[in-house]
Write a structure and sequence with these properties.
The chain is of the alpha+beta class. Among the domains are: 120 residues, Nuclear Transport Factor 2, Chain: A; 104 residues, no CATH class. Helix content is 38%, strand content 14%. The protein starts with 19 loop residues before the first helix and ends with a helix.
Length: 461
């Protein structure tokens, strides 16, 4: 990203401007330009993920832009500060003291289920600077659950040394008078206001298992598998296959040249179709395709705030992944787990941000990992896939087709794109990462020429 501004031209010493009015306009324009530049830089400092210094300096807590801080305290700010302090201290009572009624019950459920899963650090932070007219705020609430990614200092990763929470969005309703709005005449405020009480907490979009009741947890060396308490037997029966699948996925990424910064996964499972649909879509419209499992990227706090532990990574990048198995995975647990775990590793290596790449970038890679690890047959050998690739080229794996009733064909077509790239000596792992960063495949690039890919698929048998 390049910022362009008009530079102000200073008058040489001893020289009088010929047109003072024009000079005044120049000064005004320059001031406006400087202000825009300052805002742009400040915005970048807030939203761009913090990059720590490599090496010994990494032992020093991470700082952040002071102008991004909340320069005054509102009642809501005090509440967030108290809750974050409670999470640092692992003080359940202090955490719940900030809420009442339904909100206290929901937060207690989150706390108890999160503790059962295991976590190190946690945070709650608003995604915007203000409450709406009804006292609502969207927040990211999450914890660094077991197996969270943690890139090491010196790795060159922008998150190296920072704590990555696996957060999700909730809508919080405060009692009246809790507005976080920043007013310049309040910057000199000296008296700390009383904390605002939270009246309601609900998932903003789709609920996760820990939002709906007590959970059962099964822990293995590379996976924590959870489910609702009434499906505890299902969780226990599938914990070992989840563990085996986790090892397969991790080994597959290493074989492709990747270096995972996580050594396991957080996953959930249910055999209840209504429960699974609710977890995946919430109140949204289900896709036409039959879904066996999904991988949902988690979030980090958007904005650095005074009340957030400075070791917690902030910004708009995603931050880990929750994998969920549904009833349609019953006859293909291992293959589905491997597919979704491949998504998780892909998400960690190339976090999503403002612009999501085409779905084929993610789905094709996960399908290719299934093939390479031997848990699924190479789908591009099927005649219907060959026909789709020959007729449609890259249109065979459009976003629409990847969510259609015939999505399996599109998945295999996308996977074949990676398979052909591998046959030419291209690094599939590098292609998968670059396609996320670049917002899609480089069609007819040095890595893959579409006509040659089509011919290669047609020749496979």
């Amino acid at each position: 990203m390049t910022d362009t501004t008009d530079a102000a031209i200073e008058t040489a010493p001893g020289r009088t401007p010929k047109n003072r009015a024009a000079r005044a306009v120049q000064i005004a324009i320059a001031a406006i330009g400087a202000s825009i530049l300052a805002v742009t830089v400040a915005y970048g400092a807030v939203f761009w993920p913090r990059t720590p210094v490599d090496g010994p300096a990494g032992d020093v807590p991470i700082g952040w832009a002071p102008w991004a801080a909340n320069l005054r305290s509102s009642p809501a700010d005090v509440t967030f500060a108290q809750m974050n302090a409670a999470m640092r201290e692992k003080d359940r009572d202090k955490f719940l003291a900030q809420a009442t009624g339904q909100a206290a019950e929901q937060l207690a459920l989150w706390w108890d289920n999160s503790m059962a899963m295991g976590w190190n650090v946690a945070a709650i932070a608003p995604t915007d600077l203000d409450l709406d007219e009804n006292g609502n705020a969207e927040v990211v609430l999450g914890a660094q659950y077991v197996f969270a990614a943690h890139p090491e200092r010196g790795s060159g990763d922008r998150d190296a040394g920072l704590q990555l929470i696996q957060g999700f969005t909730y809508t919080v309703t405060f009692e009246p008078g809790s507005d976080r709005g920043r007013s310049f005449d309040q910057y000199e405020q000296t008296d700390e206001p009383e904390a605002a009480t939270i009246l309601s907490v609900v998932p903003t979009y789709e609920p996760n298992p820990w939002d709906e009741g007590s959970i059962h947890v099964a822990m293995r060396d590379h996976v924590v598998l959870i489910g609702m308490s009434d499906e505890a037997d299902l969780v226990e029966r599938n914990a070992d296959v989840a563990e085996q699948s986790a090892v397969i996925a991790l080994d597959a990424i290493r074989a492709l040249g990747g270096e995972p910064t996580q050594d396991g996964f957080v996953s959930a499972i249910t055999d209840d179709p209504e429960r699974f649909s609710r977890w995946q879509y919430g109140q949204g419209t289900p896709w036409d395709m039959d879904v066996a499992g999904y991988a949902r990227p988690a979030l980090r706090p958007n904005l650095p705030e005074r009340f957030i532990d400075p070791q917690i990574a902030t910004g708009t990048d995603t931050s880990g992944t929750l994998v969920v198995m549904g009833p349609l995975s019953a006859d293909s647990r291992e293959s589905t787990f491997v597919h979704e775990f491949a998504h998780a590793l892909h998400n960690t290596a190339a976090p999503g941000s403002f612009v999501a790449p085409p779905a084929a970038v993610m789905e094709g890679f996960a399908r290719y990992v299934q093939w390479e690890s031997g848990v699924a047959d190479r789908g591009y050998l099927r005649q219907e896939v060959k026909d789709a690739v020959a007729a449609g080229g890259t249109g065979a794996f459009s976003d629409e087709l990847l969510r259609s009733q015939d999505a399996g064909i599109a998945y295999d077509a996308a996977g074949s794109y990676y398979a052909y790239a591998a046959s030419t000596g291209t690094s599939v792992w590098r292609l998968a990462i670059d396609a996320v960063i670049g917002g899609g495949f480089g069609v007819d690039s040095d890595d893959v020429v579409v006509s040659e890919w089509q011919a290669w698929v047609a020749a496979q048998g």
